[in-house]
């Protein structure tokens, strides 16, 4: 059987004020419209940016009277609207038979701060996983969120998929960990207007020979749009860089005949594993005086 998965990566408009009920509802509506478009294109999984329902700006949630940052007052957030929109997204995922990964907040019992999370909903409309961002920025950990603890891997149609969020792109061990967990793809959802971060994401496709979905908010897409990286590092699909909501769609095909993908999957990834697992251990020369730096020439 062919081992394939059609992935859609969205760039949707991400609101930054969790107290703005209208903006949260508009975000949910846009997410659902893009879900319907992805399903119409044959996608089995659609990925949205970090904080797709809302990614709270520090200036909205953690600004004191004098403008200095203070711990966020999360009682101001419209938690009821966030929950309603998340439930509507999950219900539509079941109707469309479409796996959906979207960013939002997960509240914890006060006085604990919420998690910044990526929610994974199955094609039955059931929440099957929640990835809580583990590596936070200084502002996030100081004033806004509680860090998560564990990697998350879920499986769709035999394809293993890992999750990461935004600043975590700057922590290579996290992506090496997913390679050790034998994922076929990592979903990296971001809320940042930053071209270098996309290049780092592309590098992980090269280094670890897996697919990578890179989802960015529509309002930042003029700098770098959402897209899908193939094993080996090539961009397979990208959204328009025009500030508008859109989808990038490509197939994850474990039996791909594309030369660069085939080399990455069949040769580069297995060889890297062999090399790291001690391939050279029995080939090292010991006790050879010619290895002395003083006799190097």
TrEMBL record:
<protein>
    <submittedName>
        <fullName>Carbon-nitrogen hydrolase family protein</fullName>
    </submittedName>
</protein>
<dbReference type="InterPro" id="IPR050345">
    <property type="entry name" value="Aliph_Amidase/BUP"/>
</dbReference>
<feature type="domain" description="CN hydrolase">
    <location>
        <begin position="5"/>
        <end position="254"/>
    </location>
</feature>
<dbReference type="InterPro" id="IPR003010">
    <property type="entry name" value="C-N_Hydrolase"/>
</dbReference>
<keyword id="KW-0378">Hydrolase</keyword>
<dbReference type="GO" id="GO:0016811">
    <property type="term" value="F:hydrolase activity, acting on carbon-nitrogen (but not peptide) bonds, in linear amides"/>
</dbReference>
<dbReference type="InterPro" id="IPR036526">
    <property type="entry name" value="C-N_Hydrolase_sf"/>
</dbReference>
<dbReference type="Pfam" id="PF00795">
    <property type="entry name" value="CN_hydrolase"/>
</dbReference>
